[in-house]
Each structure stands twice: as structure tokens, then as C-alpha cells.
Amino acid sequence: MINISLMGAGRIGKMHAEIISAHPDVNLQYVYDINKDNALQVAKQNNAEIVNSPEEAIMSDKIDAILIASATPTHTQFITMGAKSGKAVFCEKPIDLDIHKVNECMKEINEINIPLQIGFNRRFDNSHAKVQQARLKKEIGELEMLIITSRDPEPPGLEYLNAAGGFFRDTTIHDFDLSRFILGDDPIIQVTAFGENLFDENAKKADDFDTAMFILKSREGVLIHINNSRRAVYGYDQRVEAFGSKGMIISNNQTITSVESYTNKITSSKEPILHFFIERYTQAYKDQFNHFIECIKNNIKPSVTFEDGRNALIIANAAYESHKQKKTIEITYE
Amino acid sequence: MINISLMGAGRIGKMHAEIISAHPDVNLQYVYDINKDNALQVAKQNNAEIVNSPEEAIMSDKIDAILIASATPTHTQFITMGAKSGKAVFCEKPIDLDIHKVNECMKEINEINIPLQIGFNRRFDNSHAKVQQARLKKEIGELEMLIITSRDPEPPGLEYLNAAGGFFRDTTIHDFDLSRFILGDDPIIQVTAFGENLFDENAKKADDFDTAMFILKSREGVLIHINNSRRAVYGYDQRVEAFGSKGMIISNNQTITSVESYTNKITSSKEPILHFFIERYTQAYKDQFNHFIECIKNNIKPSVTFEDGRNALIIANAAYESHKQKKTIEITYE
Amino acid sequence: MINISLMGAGRIGKMHAEIISAHPDVNLQYVYDINKDNALQVAKQNNAEIVNSPEEAIMSDKIDAILIASATPTHTQFITMGAKSGKAVFCEKPIDLDIHKVNECMKEINEINIPLQIGFNRRFDNSHAKVQQARLKKEIGELEMLIITSRDPEPPGLEYLNAAGGFFRDTTIHDFDLSRFILGDDPIIQVTAFGENLFDENAKKADDFDTAMFILKSREGVLIHINNSRRAVYGYDQRVEAFGSKGMIISNNQTITSVESYTNKITSSKEPILHFFIERYTQAYKDQFNHFIECIKNNIKPSVTFEDGRNALIIANAAYESHKQKKTIEITYE
Amino acid sequence: MINISLMGAGRIGKMHAEIISAHPDVNLQYVYDINKDNALQVAKQNNAEIVNSPEEAIMSDKIDAILIASATPTHTQFITMGAKSGKAVFCEKPIDLDIHKVNECMKEINEINIPLQIGFNRRFDNSHAKVQQARLKKEIGELEMLIITSRDPEPPGLEYLNAAGGFFRDTTIHDFDLSRFILGDDPIIQVTAFGENLFDENAKKADDFDTAMFILKSREGVLIHINNSRRAVYGYDQRVEAFGSKGMIISNNQTITSVESYTNKITSSKEPILHFFIERYTQAYKDQFNHFIECIKNNIKPSVTFEDGRNALIIANAAYESHKQKKTIEITYE
Q: Tell me, which fold does domain C122-276+311-330 have in CATH?
């Protein structure tokens, strides 16, 4: 049995608590949240205990691993504390919104050899992973273009927006990582970014975008397009298209059922697509956790590293720079 | 130039007139219709002349071929007249509703060697023909099941129904022929038929069905299902599915455009499917006529023969017998 | 906690054991199988105990419910024993292959009021259930035709075939039940059946079919077509099409991922469809068990009754009669 | 009868000759080509005469309209000559590769009021036009993003590349125009362009790109993405996706037939998509010509104007500037 402390019992923490509880080889031991009621509720539902401080949750001898789903500004502190206590660490994205804090953390844990995984769940989606495999096995020949469409069903509230660190660092960061995942050993070296505020009043108040487009370029010359919106009325639009010298592979949207309808107005109309990330990536969230547990058991390095989290943030920061300067920005990862 | 007389200038005759006129190697010389106004209108639109009797239209020395699109009871008479005058003959389906008249006609023209083609247009549809080719080339291995869905968008009027000879002989006859086309040298030897009157008041008055299902069997044991309706609110539903030992091939419906729509109610909804036979089989009607002209030019036998017309009628008649007797009927083609 | 005995630890029993174990409100207490090794293995994997006789498994005071997944000939005996002990009973289909044993059992348990559910898992498939809902809510107007395609990926072995009771009672029985489910209060009153042995040597040895087609009719005149095969090389083909006065709804096949491929040979080719019933109906199996547990908790009658199991068998028997007599058979359910 | 002179009898001129010949209200009178053999062949096939100079073809009193399908450098000269002779003018895209020549031509013909249409055929494609209509009628609410995928099946030869004026002016110009068409009265004000040479040796020799991506922005803030390739092994990939506040509409690819195949390796694989522009836009080419003829008959201004041709070129030029300067370029149309 692997004993785990859950840091953070909000919406995403709750989801993780259920995944932890359902895993046959894992025990949810402690739940910590700055809001004690949240912690109590999640602990109760999953037969866990609450603790009153991060230190108790992270440094206890009973604990083998920690899962960090707390507010973003706490991430680096908990990662460092976990690593220094020799615990395996799973941390939700982003590592932090401030690259300096990320670099600081990196230095602190640099010498410590523990399983450390960042929560880029989309890498574990079966369909997206097929695209990555197709590139790896050259099923579509040499990759030439990659097109990612990623649109949320509805905009979040103002409070969320104020804490999220901006559209590129909060949302597009997933697509930056997915691009890096599919490109494999061919690094992204350029980004050009366009953000707009077209409809969302809250985004306007938060001085944020609700619509964005990007073009990135890899060292080998692969061109990557990403487009994002905070509101797709037809659901959580998640598509990946890889185009190469020998063909194309598309990871398409998924619907609730396999039903098609025909009336005097519509033909072969499908059911609504899966509403949002919790529905669309249910299995991916489980599979990323399974991977984390397998890494702990076998003492191997998780496939989604601290560096992956850092690099995605570096691209997001460059994207902001591009938007500001209205030009293409070269990316360096030092 | 091949000079053609058109017999019948109603809805379907009009369509044929346009196809004839557009063909570069063919001249529409005469139009005959029992209704002189119809004949005049079609002749005028296509730079042809009208004639006052079938004899003038068919037996004139100027004429190389006749296209029969007149009322069904006139078909055998015109075929015989055309054949005896040495004209190439294209005749719309069905040859006749009465098998005795068909047999009589067969005897009359038996010894005459002219190109004679029956208007089973669906054989010339690219998509359906792909299914036939797949069976022929054993792309799906051995054919085991064939499923034909054939539904009209809306029921015809009472007048049409009273003259049409019944649902099986008017509508299903196309599907019987399509089955024979796909089965090739493996003849249909059995039919079981189910007709219902579920919604159409005119069909009730005409003592006809509006809904029907069939199961047929070939000598090799292939099972064939056909289903028909006089009313599909979403359009002219035309599908063919061939299932075999090595796979399946489906000829699917076709939409007006390649557009898909997404709203908060529907996802990937396609445009309406093509409304009815004139829209769906536009190209097939042209291609069957091209085939007829090629057969005349090269003096070869058309691929859709008098026998094909007769055999489809024999199946339709057996289907009525099956419905009446509530049992499976063995089919003989003598 | 609801304590359950599992009767039968073969392939399907093993699957049920996992579903039982994963349910938060249920405890797998006992496993019984005539083959003790099977029982031991399943018990061990699910932290249950084995017992040496059906009586111990069924009549124990510790037990609240039994799940019967043993060989078909034992079903009625175990149902009766369970019912008489006041246990809730879930029984895999078919109840029995012999209608006399089924009628006998019905009489025995007639007066006993316990939750008793038959394992027609397809009723719990989300997509098929949408079709049933569409019919119920008249979303497609009045139902006029129903078309069920149900094909296994590969034929079973001879041993299975010899015990299965014939293609219609083993396989089509699911489609008969699904038809009844969708038709709701409109009973099936007629069946015409066609069975063929086209490819499977084992089926030939077992004097069984490998290919079949059916047309059924309901009291309201709805025509139903079913087609079955023991071998579809492209996977477990499970489709339901309901056609009505106001439209059509289709429950389509499902693929492993949402990926589409394009090469110089193929376009928009999807991934393989889900291989067989365990993959295709994973969630349906869970949901039918959840329904059973909810019925126990709330002491209500399960939606899939003993009568449903009996009526599907009656249709299957009539189908055999139709095949033998080569005619349509009227069905009575007394 | 409208008498037309065809300028240029190469590949595209030949296609236009056939469209002209098939139109019932139009007569192809003269064919001119600098290569007399080309002219002779096309004239013969379409019952037209050849002439020995552009002047004869354009200025003849017999002539009502000219269709310019000759080499790009001749376009402005022929437009001017036609306009000054009072002839209606249809000119293939681009007007010219040099904006100065285009401006010069514009000044020359500015005061002359004749029907003048530029050959942006894609505007006349039914499916793309549905997208434009959906934007116009606000069926998808306010347009927020537009994504155009446009990929040729195979690269042209070196000779073609050397004369074509570069990838952006030869190919993307269609997509720039299509964007302008869909955006309607909301002008494009910005472009950022990325060109790569990834695979085509001829393109390399011609100092041209084979792969490109673009982001454009309209005055209202609509973001537009275009991606192009000279080689898609699966065929001529032509897709348009418009995303708005109330939904999305996609104009998808089109296949030769409506057939789907299933084997043990692939499922629901469609037929090849239409190979190239002549196959994909057959009807669009006819419909743009019909529009031109209707404009002549009714003396109205064609919907695709000289200005449209000029504006698309201005965007293409700005795209080259963006690529060179590695930054976003503001577009002015003066």
C-alpha cells in the first residue's frame, strides 16, 4: 500500500481524491486544505484523516507520496518540502506562474532523486496518445504541421480568472505541452501569439483574453497552430490534427453516446460532445495517476517531468512577449 | 449522330429529354405523348419536333433509337414496335405490371437482335456500383448478407398509386433488381414479404402498402433484407450494405453539401440528404443513357436486359404471393 | 452492505465478480462453482470465500442476494432456491433453454415477492437506451420500422455451441429482448426466421446456424428486422435503427478511440470498433448491476423481469418453428 | 447569344472552353493562345475559330465578352483592352503579381462601366458558400475565429513554380480571398505569415515554400488561421471552419462516392477525397461562369470584383513582408 497525502481539496482535489481512493494499491491517508471544511468533506467521503498543516501532511513518516492540487502559489513550496522529505510528488499544472519561483524550486530539488510528475493529463488521453505514437512510428511520415483546437464550453468566473495567471498560462499551457509531447525530441523554438477579448466581460475586467491563436515552430521546421476560446456552445472542443509526408491523423471530439438523429431539419446529428475536462479526460486522469503509482513502485522517472512543466511555462511567457511586441519570439529554455 | 424518339413527355420523360439533348452524339428528333401539350412543351425546350402517333415516332426511317417513358401499359407495345423496326430501345421500368404481357413481348422480340435496355438507373450509381464491384472482386470475401434500405421522402398521390401497380412492383422492384445486380450469377430463389399500411390514407384507398420488409435468399444461401417506406421525413434514404467473410462495404446516403453544423443542441449535423430520385440519381440517369448510346455505337448488348426487367417483376409477384399466403415463396423464372 | 453469493465462476462469472467487488455498497461473500478451482481463483481475486454446495451459497443467512452466472441448466433451480430463501436474485440470460422448465419455475416463484432481474445487459447501454427513450417520448413520431444488426466478431468453439441451445436462443434472444424493450407496451405477435450455415464448421457439426435474418411484427404493425452473424471481421457490430413518422434515430457502433486516419489509400478511417460484448457493454454490465442493487435497497421490482426472460425465449422458440415450417408464426405468450 | 473570346488555351483555358461551350446562352467564338497549336486544339474541340492576335480576339465587333486564362503577365493588358472595347471581362486570378501593374490597370479602367469578374472560384462552392451565409445570417452568432485548411495533393513542377509568383500569391491568395468573402464587411487589417521549405526540391530551387501557416485579424477582432501545403497524399484537402458565439459550421472535404469500408484493419473508411481543384470545384467553376453571364445579361456588377483581386494580392504581399520581417504587418488597401 502506498500512503498518500492530498494537498488541496477544491474541485480538482476532490476529483483526485476519488481516483486515489479507487486505486487498489493506494491509500488516501491525509487531506490538507487551507479551508478546513473542504478538507473535512473530502476526507470523510474517502475514509481519510485531515491534518492541520502542510508539514504534517507532507513530512509524516506514514506518507509515501503527495498529490498537490492546492492553489498554484503553494506548488513550489510543497514540491520542495515533499522532495526534501523523500516523498514521491505529483503536482497539478502549472508548477507556478512565476518562472523565477520555478527556477528556484528546480535548483532546490535538483539533486534529489524522487518520482516527480506534473499533471499534464492530456498526454494520457488514448486518442491524443495515438497521434503521438503515429508521429513516433512515422505512420504519417515526417511531421510537417500540427493543429490543436482547444476550446472550453463556458468561461470561468472573475475570481478564477484573477488567480489563473492569464489565458496563455492557464489554458494554452496544456496545448503547449501537448505540442511538446507530440513533437518529442524536436523542440519548439519560436512562438507568435494573438489574444483577443471578444465576448467575456469578466475576462475584460481581469485584463485577460477569451480568444487566442498561436503559431509555433520547431527546430526541424514543423509549423504548429493552436486556437483557443473560453466558450464553445457545443461543448469542450478538443481536437488534434497531425499532418505529415505520408498522411494525416486526427484525434477528434467524443460524444456522450454513439447515437445519430435524423429529422426533417437535421441529418446524422450526433449527441453533444463531452461537456468539459472532467468528462472528456476521466480515463486520462486515472491513467496519469496509474502511471505515477507505477513509477513509485518501480522507482522510475515519470514521463511528465518538472522540466516539462517549466518548458510549457517558458513558452507561455514567450507567447505573452510576442503578443506585446507584435512579433515572433525566439524561445530559449535556459 | 444518333436520332432518338422520346415516347412520353411527363415528369420522367422531361428529364430524359434533357439528358438526350445534352449528349454530344445524340439528337432528340421526335417527341410523342398522348397529351399533345406535354409533347409540345418538351419538344420546344429541346429543339425537337412532335409527332402525332407512336408509329410516326418509332417507325420513321430518320430514327435510330427510341426511349420509352410513357405510361406503363404502353411499354410492351412500343418495345415490340421498336424492335420490329430495328430500332435500339431504352424502356423505363417496369416493362409491364402483367407478367403475361411481358412474356408475350419476350416471345415477339426473341429473335430480334437490337440493343434493348431497361431503366434500372440505380445500377449506374457510382456508390452502389462500388458495392457490386466489391462483391465481384471478393473485396469483402464471400458475400453472406445484403441489406437494402430504400425509403421515399413522401408518398405520391392517389392517382399515381392507382396506376403504379402496387408498392412491390412500383418501388421495391428497384431493390429486387439492385439485389440481383449485386448477387451477379447467384440467383434469388426465395422471397418472404411483409406489407403494412401504417400512415398513408391514399395508400389505404388504393389498397396498397406504405411500409414493407422483405427477406430473400439466393441459391448460395446469401440472405437479403430490403426495407421500404413511402415517407422518410429526412429525405430519400438510399443505402446498400454488403456483408461478407472478409468485411463490409456500405453505400451511404448523400447530402447536398459537405457542411456540418454545431450548436448548443446538435453536433456534427449534416445537411439534408438529397431529396428524391431526380436529385440522388442525376448522374446515374446520365450514365445509364451514356451506356445505352455506347451499346448502340458498338452494337453490343446493354448490361441491363429485358430479362432483368422480367426477373425483377417475377420476384415482385412472388412477394405478393408471400404476403398473401404468409409464407416463404420459392421463385422460378421460367 | 449487501452480501452476495456468486453462482458460477467461468468467464462471465469472473466479470460479474469484478463488478460486484467494485460496488461500494456490496460485498462478494461466497463464490460457488462446480469446478472448485474456478471458484477458488475468483474468490481469491475478490476477497471472497468459496462454498461447497449451492445450498450453502444461496440459503445462508449471511446472504442478501445471489447472482447466477452458472451453466444454463442450473438457472431455474437456483432461481427457485434463492426466491424461496427470500434472496434477491440476478440471473444471466437465458432463464433456461426449455420453456417447460421456465414455466415450472414461474409457477414455483409466482407468489414470492423478491427483486428478480434477468441479465439483458443491452437494455442498459446508453446508446440503445436513447433509442428506447426516443420511441417512448415520440421524438421520432410513431415507430414504424426497427432494424437491429448484431454480429459477433468470431464464432465460439464447438463445446460452447453444443451447450448454447442454438443460435436463436443463445444470440438472437438478446435482439428479441431489445426489440421488446424498444417497443414497450406494443407486443411482438409474429416472427419469420431464416437461418443459414455459411462458413462455420463447428456450427455445422453442432447442427447450428452461423448467419440469420428475421422479420417480426408488433400488434400495432411495426415491422422489425434483425440480422445476425457469428463472424464480423471488423469487430462486434451492434447497431439499432428506429424509423418513425417524424424521423430516425440510430445507435451506432463505437470505436476504441476517436482517432481518424488518412493515407494515400484510405480517408477518415476510424479505429477498430470495440471487439466484443465485454468491451462494448462494460458500462452496461455495471449499470444493470447498479440497477439491481438500487432495486434491493428500495425494495422495488427490477425493470427486466422473469417475464421478459420468458417472452424472449418464446419468440426464439417461435423463430425455430418458423424456420422449420418456412412460414410466419403467430406468437402467443400464455 | 453572348459571343466570347477565350484568351489562353492551356490547362485552365481548356476547362473554361468546355464550360463556355456547354452554356446554352453562350457561344465560344474565338480562341487565342500564343501557342497556336493549343489554340487550334481547343478551338476544334469546341467549334470555335482561332485568331492570330489578342486584338482580333478582344476588339472584334462580334465579341461581347472575353475570358482571360492566359499567362498572368498578360492579364492587365487584356483587361484594359477588353474594358476599353466595352467588352465584359472575366479574368482568372491573380490579376497580376505586381501590385503596381494592378494599380495602373485600375486607374486605366476606373471610369469604364463593364461587368468585370475575377476568378475566385471557391466563392461559388456550395459548401463554402453555406459558411459565408451562416456568418451573414448570424446562424453561428458573432464570428470569432475562422480556420481554413487548404492543401494541394501534389507539388507542381519547377517551371510552374518559377512563373507562379510564390506560394502566397499563387495558392494562399485563394484563402485570403475566401477569408475576405466570409468576413464580408469586416476587413482584414493584419497578417502574420510563416513559410517553410520542408520537402519539395523544386520549391527549394525556385526559392519558394511548400508549407505555410498564417494568422490574420479583422477590424472587429476576428482571428483567422490558414494553413497550406503543396502535398497532401490523401488528396486535395479543402476545409473551412467558422466558429462563433452561437456555434460552429464546417465545410468539409468531399469524397468520390458515399461508400464506407470495413475490414479487419480499418473501419468506416471513406473513399478518396476529390483529387484536385478541377474535380473538387467542377460545379463552382460552372457556377461562377453562370454568374458572369447573368451579370452580362442583366447588366449588373459581378460579386467578385477587380478590387477583390487587388485586395487579396495586397494581403499576399503583406504576408511576404511579415515573413521577411518576422513580425505582424498592418495592412492598408490604398
A: Dihydrodipicolinate Reductase; domain 2 (3.30.360)
ipTM score assigned to the predicted complex: 0.96
| Alpha-carbon distances of C304 from A218, C118, D222, rounded to whole Å | 58, 6, 54
C-alpha dihedral, B288 to B294 to B297 to B302, nearest 10°: -60
Interface contact A225-D213, CB threshold 8 A: yes
Chain D residues with CB under 8 Å of B271 CB are 130
Rounding to the nearest 10 degrees, give the CA dihedral for residues C22, C23, C28, C32: -80
What's the pLDDT tens digit per position in A27-74? Answer: 999 999 999 999 999 999 999 999 999 999 999 999 999 999 999 999
The superfamily (CATH) of domain D123-280+311-330 is Dihydrodipicolinate Reductase; domain 2 (3.30.360.10)
Match 415520440 to its residue by C-alpha cell: C138
B125 vs D228: CA distance, rounded Å: 34
Pairing of strands C211-218, B26-32: unpaired
A:C CB pairs within 8 Å: 72
Q: Which of B251, B252, B259 sits opposite D251 (nearest CB)?
A: B259
When scoring B258, B274, B280, B287 by the number of chain D Cβ atoms within 10 A, the one with the most, hence best to mutate, is B258
Query: Cα-Cα-Cα-Cα dihedral of C136, C140, C142, C146, to 10°?
Result: -90
Q: How far apart are CA C309 and CA C314, in angstroms?
A: 9
Candidates D326, D329, D330, D331, partner chain A, best to mutate (most A CBs within 10 A)? D326
Length of chain D: 334
In D226-245, the residues whose Cβ lies within 8 Å of chain A are: 227, 229, 231-234, 237, 243, 245
- Are the CB atoms for A282 and A236 separated by under 8 Å? no
The model's pLDDT over C3-52, given as tens digits with 9 standing for 90+, comes to 999 999 999 999 999 999 989 899 999 999 999 999 999 999 999 999 99
Angle at CA of residue A150, ends A145 and A154, nearest 5°: 165
CB contact under 8 A, D212 and A223: yes
Interval A232-250: pLDDT, tens:
999 999 999 999 999 999 9
C247 CB neighbours in chain B (<8 A) are: 233-234
Helix, strand, or coil (residue B259)? strand
- Cβ of residue D263 closer than 8 Å to a chain B Cβ: yes
Q: Which class for A334: exposed (0-12), middle (13-18), buried (19 or more C-beta within 10 A)?
A: exposed
DSSP for B210-229 reads: SEEEEEEEETT--EEEEEEE
Q: Which residue in A266, A273, A274 has the most chain B C-beta atoms within 10 A of its own C-beta, making it the best mutation to test that interface?
A: A266
Please tell me whether the overall predicted TM-score, pTM, comes out greater than 0.90 for this model. Answer: yes
Residue D24's pLDDT is what?
Answer: 86
Q: Which residue of B has its CA nearest to A274?
A: B267
- Yes or no, beta carbons of C268 and D272 under 8 Å apart: no
Architecture category of domain B123-285+311-330 in CATH: 2-Layer Sandwich (3.30)
Instruction: Please report residues of B whose CB lies closer than 8 A to that of C215.
Output: 192, 194, 213-215, 225
Domain boundaries defined on chain D = 2-114, 123-280+311-330
Through-space distance between the first and last CA atoms of chain D, rounded to whole angstroms: 39
Q: What is the pLDDT of residues A236-290, one digit of tens each?
A: 999 999 999 999 999 999 999 999 999 999 999 999 999 999 999 999 999 999 9
D2-114 has which fold? Answer: Rossmann fold (3.40.50)
D192 touches chain C (CB under 8 A): no
Q: Which three cell numbers stand for residue C193?
A: 426466421
Please name the residues between 137 and 156 in chain B that touch chain D, using a CB distance below 8 Å.
139-140
**Which member of D142, D233, D328 has the closest CB to residue A246?**
D233
Q: What is the mean pLDDT of residues D109-137?
A: 97
Q: Which CATH class is domain A122-280+311-330?
A: alpha beta
